[in-house]
Amino acid sequence: MVQILFLLALAASFAGYAAYLTGLKRDLVEPNRASWLIWSAATAVEASTYAAVNPEGLQRWVFLFATIACVAITIALWRRSAWTVPTRTEMFCIATSLTALAIWAMFRDAFWAHMLVVAAVPVSFWPTWASVVADRGRERSPAWGLWTLGDLATLMVAARTPGSPVGEYAYILVELICHASIWFMVGLATINPLRSLGFRNGRFYVLDAIRTPTNLFAVSENHLGKAVFAAAPFVEGDRLMSFTGRRFRADRIPSLMRGQSDRYVQVTPDHYMGPSGRIDDLVNHSCAPNAGLRFTDQGVVLVAIRDIAPGEEICWDYSTTLAESNWHMICQCRAPDCRRVIGNFSTLSPERQEWFRARNLVAPYLRRKDDFRDGQRAA
Question: Is residue 118 part of a domain?
Fold first, then answer.
């Protein structure tokens, strides 16, 4: 029975990581990088400490496989998105979780290193919990259900091992609860194979049914590189997505930015919004945009400025936030009326400036004074 449970745990863990990597490759999930960095280090410590505390336990092989898979996902995650400084909460979670490494290195005390990893597990899940609360579509994957079942099987293996004290498999119990919590948050139906596999239009789809109404966009390639395309129709005035990067003072922005490092949006004369590591970083410029940035009390949101059909690239005009900036870029948007160079808002024609102002699609400091007296008339 123990052997069967062990094989079930290993199979569920393997299937979970395979499903998650597939979802990551197809942009079906938006993982939190801080959590995955912690999990990579924590599973490595756990694999070492558990093997030291319980050298005969079969479940140590599950932990070893989980370590390799976590590292693979973390590397894939960092390669596909630009690095941003973690928030204070994420930094606290990282520091708390990685304390186990220091204890292991300094004292070589496997048991207490193991216990500290157990205590750090809920802390490591905090950034992902916050991400799911903001948008559960970011983690809507069958992997969470598979990991939960794998943890349950691993826990049963540990419980059936003669002479195993509770402390030796406390990590498994805590991880089971954390994985199950994410599974409940994203929806128990995500593990339903009928929602994950199937034939449609003569093709076999894997994970395609996990796309929910919150997955309204697709990331693909165009002549500029990565770009965001509509996966559903939008009408003029629809809110498309939020821009959520961290703010930086202008003097902290690199003077030379190219390619993936150029993900900064000017939001005040002295501040820029940095990359978020999410889909908003990939929305390109166009001199004939179908979307525009609107600054509201709830944050910076991208709205449709005309009807957008499925398959159409989402674009906005970068100049609508730029003032007194030294930044400029040769434009390759290929629009019929391309300006050739993207520069400050003042480089637009007076008529075009008024068109954007009338629709409240410019940064606040670029509005006229009477716009403030009239209020958010176009919001």
Answer: yes
| Residue 127 binned pLDDT confidence (cut-offs 50, 70, 90) | confident
Residue 379 included in any domain = no
**32 vs 109, residue with greater confidence:** 32
pLDDT at 352 over 90: yes
Say whether both 30 and 167 belong to one domain. yes
pLDDT of residue 41: 74
Listed residues 183, 210, 237: the one ending a domain: 210
Q: Which of 162, 168, 74 is nearest to 124 (CA)?
A: 74
Average of per-residue pLDDT values in the chain: 77
Overall pTM > 0.85? no
Distance CA 254, CA 146 (A): 43
pLDDT at residue number 213:
47
How many domains is the chain built from?
Answer: 2
State which residues form the domain around 286. Answer: 217-374
* Residue 367 and residue 353 in contact, taking contact as beta carbons nearer than 8 Å: no
Whether the predicted pLDDT of 103 surpasses 80: no
Give CA–CA dist 184/160, Å, rounded.
Answer: 27
Q: Is residue 345 part of a domain?
A: yes
Same domain for 250 and 178:
no
